[in-house]
Amino acid sequence: MALMSPLFKKRAVSLGIRYNFLRLPTREKRVSTPASASLTPTGKSYRWNRERYSKTRRFFDIWFFVWRFLFGRWLLTQSWSYWGGMTDAKRAARRRAQAIWIRETFLDLGPTFIKLGQLFSTRADLFPSEYVEELSKLQDRVPAFSYELVTKIIYEDFGRPIPELFRSFDPIPMAAASLGQVHKAQLLSGEEVVVKVQRPGLRQLFDIDLAILKGIAQYFQNHPKWGQGRDWMGIYDECCRILYEEIDYLNEGRNADTFRRNFRDREWACVPRVYWRYTSRRVLTLEYLPGIKISHYEALEAAGLDRKRLAELGAKAYLYQVLNDGFFHADPHPGNIAVSPNGQLIFYDFGMMGRIQPVTRDKLLKTFLSIAQRDAEQVVQCLVELGALVPTGDLGPVRRSIQYLLDNFMNQSFETQSVAQISDDLYEIAYDQPFRFPATFTFVMRAFSTLEGVGKGLDKDFNFMQVAQPFATELMTNGNLPDPSNGSLFSELSRQAAQVGSSAIGLPRRLEEVLDKLENGDLRLRVRSSESDRILRRLSNINLGLNYVVLIGSFSLAATILFVNQYLLLAGVAAALAVWFGILYWRLMLKLDKYEKMF
Fold this sequence. Notes:
By secondary structure, the protein is α+β, with helices and mostly antiparallel strands. The chain has helices spanning 6-13, 55-76, 88-109, 111-120, 129-135, 147-158, 162-165, 202-221, 232-246, 249-262, 297-302, 307-325, 358-372, 376-386, 396-410, 419-430, 439-458, 464-478, 489-520, 530-564, 568-597; strands spanning 166-169, 175-176, 180-187, 192-198, 269-270, 283-287, 292-293, 327-329, 337-339, 345-347, 353-355. Among the domains are: 55-136, no CATH class; 306-479, no CATH class; 534-598.
């Protein structure tokens, strides 16, 4: 691609704007010097920033973080741990502080946890909103590794030194992140390229960390509270696949080629070319395509580019990826999209991509129609078929939540609907419910929300849903589905006939399932009685109180015996434990008394 015109440079430089070059998988921070291998740009040292890693040390660091996290979660519910008593505001402040601590600790723990944190920031169905919000801020502000290591990696992968492969190679990286860093270079044939080099020892670190994380995932899977309705082992396997794919630069190169082919007939999009002769599992060489970062709004204005058109092109590009190609960019944050001098969108970073299989697309079509018809029962069934909802014994609360969402969502005008608002409402319902949204779904929703935010920055009147309406109509047309927006009598009769036909066809199967459950003894009748629940809860608390009394007596007796025999230190410990359980018993009695007054 031609270099930037003098007029383009002059307008941008007049505002002091730097151009956005090819970036790494996450939000990078440019470095001006080849920083040492142990200090960040802020001078902070990281133990993980090395070529070799200790399994024992990593095991201790990771599990120490887990136990501190669990202890913090436990303290969150203990009223005695709040100075002046527990209030909603104090609990919210403590959750926020814990979320910030998690983000900072993930950065301290290194590349594996930085990438996991960025993945978890898409899972608002699994984690509280404070955690998701803080993890979405997670950035790779880590030091670059030395140029000597870069030369070593390139020689190991290609068997030739840098001067035999490149006419020039800038030893100072353009950008550095947890997974690697980017250097500008020029091939012997004269083409300008960027060379992405993986951080030394990264695969070894992933192997060690993921082996430890497997044990943690098994712990959460078997946890009586957090394991219920959550497929933690499935989430672990999914994260492993994504992480290993992202550090395989051959896979990223193939993704870039596929993405480039999909956009070859769209002149408004530009994707860098892969130079396969200079690419390996740890080194990726791409065409050098400079541009202005899409979120640098003043620079775009100075270059004379139409911001409203760019907002529409960004949404259009992603809708093409999801609805037409079934192959989409899973991390389209502003650092991965730039704009060329002639107004083309330039896409970077293809390590994390999503795919939508044809069978999944058909199920999504069915779900889309059910939502359009406001049929919560059918939506629940579709979500079960998609694997996004665990078929527990009682899905009544889930169905009612979905019906509430449908009633509120469908009553709004199409033009006023926001992707971010819709996804927030959906995740609000999903949290603490038996949902397990696939990664593809969460990636799509996050991407839509991100692009909507960028679009509003470019054009304050931008509405992603309004741009998506023609594509939604086309989607239903291609799926041979009746358009619910058409209020004609024929359309309504067609919809009802299709619904009756579908119910009639599915009735024998549903009857057979009920009979099978009855025959196998799996059919359960659930009856709730508030009076029975109250009595059982009271008996449980009384039993707990008896345990406290036994412990108080035991520690009091032990303290007395130890004191008589001059074991003063041990006697003091036993007495302190007796006092502690006495306080717990007193609080339990107050709780029982308060509970009895409520009924």
